Every structure is written in C-alpha cells, then in structure tokens.
Amino acid sequence: MKYAIVLAAGRGTRMRTGKNKVMHELLHKPTIGHLVSNLEKIKIDQTVVVTGYDSESVEAYLKDRVSYAYQDEQIGTGDAVSKVTQLADKKGSTLLVFGDTGLLQPEMIQTIFDKHEGHDLTITTAISKEPGSESRVIRDNQGMVSKVVNHRDLSDVELKSVNEVNLGVYCFDNELLFEYLPKIEATGPRMDLNIIDLVRIMREDGRQVQALRVSDSKQFTAIADRHRMASAQRWLQDKINEGHMDKGVTILDPNTTFIGPDVKIQEDTTIYPNNHIYGVTSIKNNVTIYPGCWIEDGVIGENTEIHSSKISQSRVGKNSTVGPNAHLRLNSKVGQNVRIGNYVELKNSSVASGSSCAHLTYLGDAEIGKNVNIGCGVVTANYDGSKKHKTIIGDNVFVGSNSSLIAPLKIGANAKIAAGSTIVDDVGSYDLAIARTRQEVKKEYVKKKKEKEV
C-alpha cells in the first residue's frame, strides 16, 4: 500500500502573503493542486493533507480528493505528522512531502517508492555547488547516512566540506514512522518537533536508512517565496511546452506561451506568442491560436482558428473561427463552420452549425439554430432585473443589425427581423418582424429654419 502525507499547515512568511502559500498558483493552478494531481497519477491509496493556517481555502479547493488532518499550532513537521492519526496503524510505505513542492513529477514519486523497497526510511538528496541555507546530509566514515542537520546547527567544518543537501521529501515504512514519532525531542525557542531528527534516531537504532541522490533537484524546489515561484513557473512552463512540441505542436515562442499541466493538444496545432491555455482544455488537430488568447476549460475542434479572444468553460466546433476580441463563457457551445466575429460575447448560449455572428453582438442565454445570420449590434436582453430568460432562434433566421431581442422570446425558422427592431413578442416561421418607429421626412426643414432665423 502507498500513502502520502502532504504538509500544508504553514502560512509561509517569506511569501509575504495573506493566504496559505500552497494556494499560490503556477500556470493558473495552485501549487498544492499540482502536487495532488501528480500523486493521483501514480494511484496513491490514501493522501492526507495536514492543514492549519487558512485551512478553509485549501479544503475548499481539494474537496474530497484527499483526507485531512489539522495542526492548530505550527510547532514543527514532526508535530504535523503526528496529527495524521488515520494512517497510524496501516502497513505500507508513506511519502512525506511539503505542499509547496508543486514541481515534483509523477515519475519521480514512483521512483522514490520503488527505490524505497527493503528500507525503513529513504531521504532524497542532491549534490549542490552552492548549498546556501539548505540542510545537509552527514555521512559516517563508511559513507552511510548518519543524520541530517539544519544549516543553523552545522559546524564550521561541515559548512565548508559538506555539499550534499537534503531535498525534504521522505519515504517511510508507515508503521515505523508512527512508532518513532514520539522519540523526537523538542528543540529551539519554539520547542519544535523536527521530522529530520528521525534520520539520526532510526539510524542509531539500526534501521535501514538510505539516501536517494537525484540529478534533477529542480523539481524538489520548495516554493517558499515569490522569486522561487517565478523560477518554478519557468521550469514547469518549459517542461510542458517541450512535451507538446515533442508531440507535434508548433509553439512559435515558448517563452510567451503559458499552458497548464492538464491541457491536451493534438498534433499540427499552431500556437502563436502571448497565449494562455489553462484548466481542463482540449485542443484538436490543426487548430491555429493567434496571439493574445486566454482559453480555460475549453474544447476547440479541429481546423478552427481563434483570434485574440477569451474562451472559458465553452466549446467550439471544427472549421470555425472565433474573434478577434470575442468572449465565450459559461457553457457556451459553438457548432462547426460557425463565424463568431470581433467583439461578440456569448454567455450560456449555443450557436448551431453554419451560423454567423460577425461583430459587436451580445447573445446571453440564447439558443441559435443552423445557418442563422446575426447582424451587427444585436443584443438579447436576457435579464429583467431579477431573473434570466431564454431566447430561441430557429434555423435559417436573419436578424438585422442593431436589433434588441427581449427575452423570453422565440423566433421561428426562416423568419426575418428588420434592422433596428425591438422584438418583444414571438415571431413565427417565415414571418417578417418590423418593430421600429416609422420614419418621417420633413422636406427642406433645415433650409427653411435657417431662412427664418435670418
């Protein structure tokens, strides 16, 4: 059995933030979200997140994807782990990781579990040319791990000679973890209980402690301040973009292209610079995404073009075009061979195949049929001040420019709405609706007025 304990109780003072540091985002996804998603990919049997500061936001985000324990006072990692009572009697291996380690990849997590087989405790380490303030791994004269020492507690000799750093990710025999937790002694001015003391305690007790030395330590980065957050996002951005390019996606400028980890893109898609693509988005073959787009939780059909537009929680069919400067939101659905033009906004609306809405239009809570032409400046007035109402437009309808459609409203197939109309009643199939004041022309009115003034 495989378990994971994620420590996410601290505020993160170096982040200088009013929220839990694990809720800060990398590529529009909370740091802890990256970590939990990667744990899920290797099928952890149970993950327990230890919360404390701002626990409400962490639990509201993760919901029932994990179990929870609570540390009411942050007095060390050892104390935090002791709160995970739901794992105390279980057999198996337990990964212990900090919630701000959002870059840790599934392959590395699986490797740690695999290498841990036959050992009581596995720590992860790396050789660093500039160890800085990192804790160090101290080995005995046989080269075996004897302890891990915090930077502030290192001797002068250790500071100069030891360059193997502790990366802060551990794997324990779960039963031994909870057996040895009570043996940690409180230290420091706050009397903290530090989990790294178990390395020394278990080693002195004859337990099998190993150091798993890794070559790519970047993914173990603890995102503890804004500088590391920026550096971590660049690393993740490069990794994700390279993965898509390896699979046949053209990314013209990877430095200005931001793609979330849950996005799926098929081959022969071209992505221009200055684009953001996030959430559970799916982009099919041969799509072109021109500069300046934001796509989140969207589905884009093959052979479609998106120009400088925002699409969220919406779908666009194949062989369609969207934008420039269009906005599709809240479960809008665009069919195939559809034109959604510049400055068009769809909200909770559907536009069936073959229809066109070329510019300067708002369609809210609307259902548009096939082969419909929506003229410039058309508005569905869907809100009466207390409730939203639906507009239904049948196939082959022509709606003239600058028309207002006052919902609730139904317009039958093959009907025509004259430009400048305000439609308040249903319109039947094949009907022509004109709802505007009749034009009056007063001959030479201006000329006569001027003559009077003289």
Short descriptors:
454 residues, alpha/beta, Spore Coat Polysaccharide Biosynthesis Protein SpsA, Chain A, UDP N-Acetylglucosamine Acyltransferase, domain 1, 2 domains, 16-stranded parallel β-sheet, 9-stranded parallel β-sheet, 9 helices, 39 strands, 19% helix
Descriptive notes:
The structure is a single chain. With 454 residues, the protein is of the alpha/beta class. It folds into two domains: 2-220, Spore Coat Polysaccharide Biosynthesis Protein SpsA, Chain A (Alpha-Beta Complex), CATH 3.90.550.10; 343-454, 3 Solenoid (UDP N-Acetylglucosamine Acyltransferase, domain 1). 19% of the residues lie in helices and 31% in strands. The strands form six sheets. The protein has a 16-stranded parallel sheet that branches. Helix 2 links the parallel strand 4 (46-51) and strand 5 (67-70). The longest helix is centred in the middle third of the chain and has 21 residues, at 226-246. The radius of gyration is 31 Å and the shape is elongated.
Please outline the major beta sheet.
Answer: 16 strands, parallel
What value does the Rg take, in angstroms?
Answer: 31 Å
Could you name the CATH class of the largest domain?
Alpha Beta
The shape, in one word, is elongated
SS-based structural class?
alpha/beta
CATH architecture title of the largest domain: Alpha-Beta Complex
What is the CATH topology descriptor of the largest domain? Spore Coat Polysaccharide Biosynthesis Protein SpsA, Chain A
What does the average pLDDT come to? 94
Number of alpha- plus pi-helical segments: 9
Fraction of residues in helix = 10-25%
- According to CATH, the homologous superfamily of the largest domain is Spore Coat Polysaccharide Biosynthesis Protein SpsA, Chain A
Query: Distance between termini?
Result: 100 Å
Q: What kind of oligomer do you see?
A: single chain
Low-confidence parts: none
